[in-house]
Amino acid sequence: MSISTAKMTARQFLQLGEDPPGIRLELVDGEIAVSPSLNFDHSHVDKALSFFLVGHIRKNDLGESVGDVDTFFGEFDVRRPDIIFIAKQRLDIVKNIIEGPPDLCVEILSPSSSRIDRKDKFKQYQDGGVAFYWIVDPEARTIEAFELKNRKYRPAGSAHGNQTVRLPPFPDLDIPLADLWFTRKR
Q1: Contacts of 160 (CB under 8 A, 6+ apart)
Q2: Rounded Cα gap, residues 62 and 89, in angstroms
Q3: What's the predicted TM-score (pTM) here?
């Protein structure tokens, strides 16, 4: 007896509807990838960084920033970056989902996502034409930025601890890292 499998398409995946409680679903090479809900540190960084980005983007009428939205990367790939920026002149890619590469994808590392964000998503966003990719590590208290040049990501800036940093595509936005990290009271 022979068993065959078929890849799920992005369109089929999007028809599944909302994720079950407590998990996040993405489509990777036609297969459903499951990840747990966000942990506290991840969520804290997400909200704090989004606060800076959304304020700057709106104040300067640069486009839109959202998070955790289905983003179409190809026939068999739907990802949900933690934070997404789409420049004003490219807002036509926004439907109920994002149909094309955002200008910036931000991934915030969790213990279970580090390898995926640093390897798999790095390559997928690079190959998919995402102009800028930031990786934020709440545990190490670092932020790394990459810029797509000649179809390859090149380092475009980094910071750690309580430094203040400016990263592309926002050269005039100060991001005080001290405001991103949750400090537990002892």
Answers
A1: 140, 141, 142, 143, 177
A2: 9
A3: 0.92
Pairwise CA distance, residues 133 & 55, whole Å: 19
Tell me the per-residue pLDDT of 71-129, one tens digit each, with 9 for 90 and over: 999 999 999 999 999 999 999 999 989 999 999 999 999 888 899 999 999 999 999 99
User: CA angle, corner 54, sides to 93 and 144, nearest 5?
Assistant: 85
What is the C-alpha to C-alpha distance for residues 168 and 179, in angstroms, rounded to an integer? 19
Helix, strand, coil shares of the chain, percent, nearest 5, are 25, 40, 35
* Per-residue tokens: 3: 């068993």
> Do the beta carbons of residue 72 and residue 129 sit within 8 Å?
no
Burial state string for 133-170 with b = 16 or more CB within 10 A and e = fewer than 16: bbbbbbeebbbbbbbbeeeebeebeebeeeeeeebebb
CA gyration radius, the chain: 17
Statement: residue 63 has pLDDT above 90: yes
Indicate the SS3 state at residue 128: helix
Residue 146: in which H helix or E strand, if any? strand 142-149
Can you tell me the distance from the alpha carbon of 97 to that of 79, in angstroms, rounded to the nearest whole number? 10
Task: Give the CA dihedral 105, 115, 178, 82, nearest 10 degrees.
Answer: 30
